[in-house]
């Protein structure tokens, strides 16, 4: 895959909104940053993890803050560059490649921008294959690669290094620092080796993200129904990937509640012309579970995306509104995400559900 | 008494109203200079109603001229773009996502300046006044006429933009300045875009408003001039000169508000059939349901509250095509309908010809369509009705049947009951609903900001902000006793430790019009 013009950048951002499963921050700000780099002729280079040496030094960068604040603060490329410099100084070695911790939402597109700016390769992988609300919810953490040291900076030159006992504590400390600095800071974290990335990352998600965005645009232009193209791309049982069109209808109720800074929501949809055919999607910052007339059809960490019924444009959680005509698509999580040790962290139990995880392909044979 | 005018792409409509009574209405072709069509339409309603011009207390105009100018890249001024946020936002300068031709039309006069505050209002860096002085000198030396100033979190704290405007004026006293807090809400890129669009239109808006004033003077009307804005409320002509961008979706808003007014319904679907398109939208509490999606204006992303309207290619001038499978639209003869439709002696079969053939409308020469095969008429009618029904279904939020109001010059296309509609209203004066919407005569104001309920508590904070909004309505000309809050929207903010809420409050009141 190559990202060399505005259209490529937009395709990438559209894919990131899809894989953001309702959250992850609006990729638009990252899109604008990456677009700036691309228009200057600095194209991001995406490589496969197996092109890395085992002892290669890999790092993640991500934003920590509140999505509505992000759209006022925007981004500073200078800051991101300085963050990289200072982190390399702190670690005592230079970085060979970047990896996005979170493919969905802002972070993957922004990391591509940093990769372009620093002329570093970006690995075609991430730590979850979707979006999650906390920095410890990544495969890296599950398999013992610590987030620390987490270097946190803002545009004004404020800087902190979080060295924590565990990744959940790193999340709490980083969140507190972010709050005290206007609720938007940037971090460099999860220093890893090439070997660790090969063993523990969720692979090929950058190229998947780009192909989803591209497929939606092309299907919209070429097919009567863009969802046909999307399903043909994503439903490949022979490759272990399962995708289902779960619902076609409109939003009839939205309930939001903020508890402990987390966004809990319930989205109720009705099928067109049949008020008795109802789907409910439950969210905690991201969409977690879908129930069709009371029957569970998708459960975290499998992915859920709500898209515009006509254009198949993914709709992020904050842009959902009463009356929207939508379709709901479910996608199987990557196999690594369904291993028992991963399910223990970001399976249903990790979000307070009592039920067991069941794969989307079993729930919807 | 008051006159409502709607300047559309094809027709200029006018009505004269007293209280809630429509005394006369008229439709005249829109002229190249706009003023000509406006004078003709107003003169027609004055003649028809015999109301003396001295009784006209106010004239309300709805126009799409400004938005059209921007979309067509015509009559735009170059704009000095000042952003106050550094060192924040440095990586995403102004205009980055604008189409190239627009960027060239606006010029790339960008000044990024230090200073700003957090969402809490706490300052992270004072305003860099030296940088502003340098920018002001440069603006003066370049001879730029329009300036757009955007500071970070301007909807929460306006003082950075106000101070910057004062500095610019010291050096370049004649420039037209737009502050982002006047035209946009939270989201810096979208608010800045709105401010730049607005600044680029200010010279045009002065000319246009001036031509309206001259039209009224030519008719000896001394009443006050108002322009309708996106949410259906009015602003003074002076305010419209300052904020032309606030008029950009007044067209659909006016016709929906007019439909609500004529039918007396507060909750209904409005089907507005024009010459080329049909707009379907919902009235909720008497106002158009709004969309919160990011929307594009001429390829530029903005976040205005716009009426949530679905447009389909079906109107009075839509061309009827096919034999076995008849389809109507989206191709249309548009304003050439008076020459091209069969009933007007032309050779093109249009949707209006079908309406006449079906007996629903009595326009032009009915004998020109009397020999149409009944099967063709039947199939065309089915296609037209089913297109409207599909649009209706897409916009509805529940399966329950809803009352519908038919307005617009093309309302005669509907001759049967519509699926999903409980009762179909076709009010008198339906074809000039947009001009009536303009003449309803309400003023409004809204405040959107991030608040913390903290010690004073939710109710107290909402009460204080409500009072502030109501004062703004009175300042805009509202009769104090009629001012009321019509909308309170709270959105909790995620990932914040503090209990911060994005609060939006809107109030409206009746305009003092002397009726």
TrEMBL record, chain A:
> For the S-Me-THD-like C-terminal domain, which residue ranges apply?
166-360
Question: What Pfam families would the database entry show?
Answer: S-Me-THD_C, S-Me-THD_N
Domain S-Me-THD N-terminal, chain residue ranges per copy? 7-163
Q: Which Gene3D superfamilies match?
A: CV3147-like (2.40.390.10), CV3147-like domain (3.40.1610.10)
Query: What is the name of this protein?
Result: DUF917 domain-containing protein
Automatic annotation (TrEMBL), chain B:
On the tree of life, the source organism's domain of life is Bacteria
| Signal peptide from the UniProt entry | none
Q: Which residues form the Hydantoinase/oxoprolinase N-terminal domain?
A: 2-171
Indicate the segments forming the Hydantoinase A/oxoprolinase domain, all copies.
191-359
Q: Which GO terms describe its molecular function?
A: hydrolase activity
A Pfam family cross-referenced in the UniProt record is: Hydant_A_N
The name of this protein is Hydantoinase/oxoprolinase family protein
């Amino acid at each position: 895959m190559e990202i060399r013009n505005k259209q490529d950048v937009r395709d990438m951002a559209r894919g990131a909104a899809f894989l953001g499963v309702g959250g992850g921050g609006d990729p638009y700000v990252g899109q604008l940053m990456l677009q700036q780099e691309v228009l200057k002729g600095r194209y991001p280079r995406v490589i496969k993890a197996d092109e890395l040496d085992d002892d290669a030094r890999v790092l993640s960068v991500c934003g920590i803050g509140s999505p509505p604040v992000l759209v006022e603060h925007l981004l500073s490329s200078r800051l991101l560059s300085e963050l990289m410099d200072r982190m390399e100084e702190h670690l005592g070695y230079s970085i060979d490649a970047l990896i996005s911790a979170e493919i969905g939402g802002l972070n993957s597109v922004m990391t591509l921008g940093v990769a372009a700016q620093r002329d570093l390769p970006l690995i075609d992988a991430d730590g979850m294959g979707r979006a999650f609300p906390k920095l410890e919810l990544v495969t890296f953490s599950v398999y013992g690669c610590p987030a620390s040291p987490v270097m946190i900076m803002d545009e004004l030159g404020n800087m902190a290094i979080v060295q924590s006992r565990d990744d959940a504590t790193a999340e709490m400390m980083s969140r507190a620092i972010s709050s005290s600095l206007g609720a938007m800071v940037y971090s460099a974290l999860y220093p890893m080796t090439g070997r660790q990335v090969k063993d523990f990352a969720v692979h090929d998600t950058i190229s998947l993200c780009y192909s989803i965005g591209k497929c939606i645009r092309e299907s919209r232009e070429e097919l009567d129904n863009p969802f046909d193209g999307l399903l043909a791309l994503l439903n490949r049982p022979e490759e272990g990937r399962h995708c289902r069109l779960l619902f076609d209808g409109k939003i009839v109720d939205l309930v939001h509640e903020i508890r402990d800074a987390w966004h809990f929501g319930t989205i109720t949809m009705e099928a067109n012309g049949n008020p008795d055919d109802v789907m409910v999607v439950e969210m905690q910052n991201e969409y977690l579970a879908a129930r069709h007339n009371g029957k569970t059809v998708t459960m975290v960490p499998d992915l859920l995306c709500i898209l515009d019924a006509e254009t198949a444009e993914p709709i992020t959680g904050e842009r959902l509104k009463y009356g929207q005509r939508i379709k709901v698509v479910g996608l199987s999580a990557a196999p690594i995400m369904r291993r028992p040790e991963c399910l223990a962290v970001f399976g249903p139990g990790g979000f307070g559900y009592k039920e067991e995880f069941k794969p989307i392909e079993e729930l919807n044979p | 008494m008051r006159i409502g005018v709607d300047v559309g792409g094809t027709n200029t409509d006018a009505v004269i109203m007293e209280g809630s009574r429509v005394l006369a209405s008229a439709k005249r072709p829109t002229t190249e200079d706009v003023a000509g069509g406006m004078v003709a339409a107003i003169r027609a309603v004055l003649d028809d109603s015999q109301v003396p011009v001295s009784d006209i207390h106010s004239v309300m105009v709805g126009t799409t001229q400004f938005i059209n100018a921007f979309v067509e890249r015509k009559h735009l001024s170059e704009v000095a773009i000042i952003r106050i946020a550094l060192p924040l936002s440095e990586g995403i300068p102004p205009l980055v996502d604008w189409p190239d031709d627009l960027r060239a039309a606006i010029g790339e006069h960008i000044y990024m300046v230090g200073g700003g505050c957090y969402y809490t209002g706490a300052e992270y860096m004072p305003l860099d006044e030296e940088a502003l002085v340098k920018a002001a000198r440069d603006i003066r030396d370049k001879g730029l006429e329009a300036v757009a100033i955007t500071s970070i979190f301007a909807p929460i704290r306006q003082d950075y933009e106000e101070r910057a405007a004062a500095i610019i004026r010291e050096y370049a006293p004649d420039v037209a300045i737009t502050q982002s807090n006047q035209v946009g809400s939270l989201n810096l890129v979208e608010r800045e875009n709105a401010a730049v669009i607005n600044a680029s239109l200010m010279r045009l808006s002065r000319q246009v408003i001036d031509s309206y004033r001259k039209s009224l003077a030519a008719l000896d009307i001394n009443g006050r001039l108002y322009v309708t804005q996106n949410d259906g409320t009015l602003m003074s002509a002076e305010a419209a000169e300052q904020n032309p961008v606030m008029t950009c979706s007044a067209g659909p808003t006016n016709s929906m508000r007019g439909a609500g007014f004529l039918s007396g319904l507060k909750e209904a679907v409005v089907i507005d059939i024009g010459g080329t398109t049909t707009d379907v939208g919902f009235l909720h509490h008497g106002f158009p349901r709004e969309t919160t999606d990011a929307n594009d204006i001429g390829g530029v992303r903005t976040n205005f509250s716009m009426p949530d309207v679905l447009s389909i290619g079906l109107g009075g001038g839509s061309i009827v095509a096919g034999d076995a499978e008849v389809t109507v639209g989206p191709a249309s003869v548009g304003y050439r309908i008076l020459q091209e439709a069969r009933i007007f002696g032309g050779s093109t079969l249009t949707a209006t010809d079908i309406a006449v053939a079906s007996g629903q409308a009595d326009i032009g020469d009915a004998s020109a369509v009397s020999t149409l095969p009944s099967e063709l008429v039947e199939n065309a009618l089915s296609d037209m009705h089913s297109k409207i029904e599909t649009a209706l279904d897409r916009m509805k939020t529940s399966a329950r049947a809803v009352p519908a109001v038919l307005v617009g010059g093309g309302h005669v296309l509907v001759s049967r009951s519509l699926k999903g509609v409980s009762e179909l209203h076709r009010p008198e004066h339906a074809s000039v609903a947009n001009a009536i919407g303009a003449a309803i005569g309400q003023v409004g104001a809204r405040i959107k900001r991030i608040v913390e309920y903290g010690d004073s508590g939710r109710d107290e904070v909402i009460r204080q902000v409500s009072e502030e909004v109501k004062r703004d309505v009175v300042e805009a000309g509202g009769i104090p006793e009629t001012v009321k809050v019509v909308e309170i929207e709270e959105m909790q903010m995620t990932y914040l430790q503090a209990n911060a809420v994005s609060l939006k409050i809107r109030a409206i009141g009746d305009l003092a019009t002397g009726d």
